[in-house]
Design goal:
The structure is a homodimer.
Chain A lengths: L14 E3 H4 L3 E3 L5 E11 L5 E8 L8 E6 L3 E4 L4 E4 L3 H5 L4 E2 L8 H11 L5
Parallel strand pairs in A: 2-7
Antiparallel strand pairs in A: 2-3, 3-4, 4-5, 5-8, 6-7
């Protein structure tokens, strides 16, 4: 951690700022970095984060892919300073994904795709 | 809504992108705009949004105040395209607040301050 004059107040043991989540690294089961959190999809009424949309690949912003992960897939790892996903990178790469500007309709059928692929119930 | 070639996929009837929440207007009970959502504070483990930190006032980024509202205080209003808080602006202005770079410790005692002031149980 940098030794700066300002104390990092964007995080406590329990809560994290949405500004800090964006850009947080995401690692796969084998420890390699998969990508980083680009943004979150949040339930409007209940304020529950449903998915973290992880960005992967790309160069100078071109060709970046996004793949949404159910929030329950992410476990925050203090030591690594990022999220661990207990999946193989290959499985993630085969998962639902989309390119920038080709965002899917975030509807029930897309939710179903994600749920079936990851085998988890979306919160 | 603008008539553009890209369809707005950052929102469905149920979920909203964290990119879109940031900057959303927040209105008080009498309909006047209080400020806008600056960022969210999210529970790391459960992915539950606890507070929306609303920015108010300021000019060219100077002198802006932030006041955190429990997520349960915000109701999304489709017609107005923003959140309504069923409080008087005066009550909000007297609530817990802080200036940029003077962020509080987001700990249990701060949570308690917010809970007592707003009389709601934080999710």
């Amino acid at each position: 951690m940098e030794n700066t004059q300002t104390t990092d107040r964007t995080e406590t043991h329990d809560t994290i700022s949405s500004e800090k989540v964006d850009g947080t690294a995401v690692y796969g089961r084998d420890g390699d970095q998969i990508g980083s959190v680009h943004h979150l999809m949040i339930g409007k009424r209940d304020g529950q984060v449903r998915h973290a949309v992880v960005s992967y690949g790309g160069f100078l912003g071109m060709g970046e892919d996004y793949f949404p992960l159910p929030w329950s897939e992410l476990t925050y790892d203090e030591r690594r300073g990022g999220y661990i996903v207990d999946r193989d990178i290959a499985q993630l790469k085969d998962g639902p994904r989309y390119q920038r500007d080709r965002e899917p309709s975030w509807d029930r059928s897309y939710d179903d795709q994600l749920t079936s692929y990851y085998g988890v119930r979306l919160m």
